[in-house]
């Protein structure tokens, strides 16, 4: 026979058990008054919960060298910025006809205009080239007109080593004698001694015309290079 005393005891036990279960069950809907701190989210799941507490509990009492997380972030940021500054930037130089000076003792006739130049026979023109120290020349392009099968235009990029008193040919572009295609674009990306050393060397772009004729015209020499800012 169940007495009132037994019934009260059963009810009290039931209430205690229910309260205990609710306290043990984690609820994601519950929130604190604090602000989410990613440094306390040990497993980086976006929630600070019992998992993070468990990880912290397992490490409770251990010792070691502390990490200044702010200093670590600043160090990483500095390294990223340093890497970004080491990325080569591209530069360009255009040498129009007005940039060239005729070598008068080799020219019987020449004509330098805003958009084109010609000279001959066996005429030389020279233009100084000034690029940033340490730059790397990646390619050179010559825009010209060659309408003669018996004539040609040759473009040279040369380096004069003032220390060794020696000329170095860096690259040559040549329209050739065989064909006369008219408008031509000559390109070369195989540059010898491509690194710029302004301390010991000077650089010159030279153009040679085999004949003085309207069928041999130079429009522009275009040079592309890379450098570190």
Describe this structure in words.
Helix content is 21%, strand content 35%. It has 229 residues and is an alpha+beta fold. The chain has a domain at 89-227: Jelly Rolls, CATH 2.60.120.260. A hairpin with a 4-residue loop joins β3 and β4.
The major pleated sheet works out as: 5 strands, antiparallel
Order of helices and strands: HHHEEEEEEEEEEE
How is the CATH topology of the domain at 89-227 named?
Answer: Jelly Rolls
Widest sheet, order of strands: 2-5-10-7-8
Distance between the termini: 96 Å
Structural classification: alpha+beta
CATH homologous superfamily of the domain at 89-227 - what is it?
Galactose-binding domain-like
- Uncertain runs: none
Task: Give the helix level as a range of percent.
Answer: 10-25%
- What is the mean predicted local confidence, pLDDT? 83
Secondary-structure blueprint:
Elements lengths: L3 H21 L25 H9 L10 H17 L3 E7 L5 E2 L6 E4 L4 E4 L2 E7 L6 E11 L6 E9 L4 E9 L7 E7 L12 E9 L6 E12 L2
Antiparallel strand pairs: 1-11, 2-5, 3-4, 5-10, 6-9, 6-11, 7-8, 7-10
Short description:
The chain has 229 residues and is α+β, with helices and mostly antiparallel strands.
Keywords summarizing the entry:
229 residues; Jelly Rolls; 3 helices; elongated; 4-stranded antiparallel beta sheet; 5-stranded antiparallel beta sheet; single chain; alpha+beta
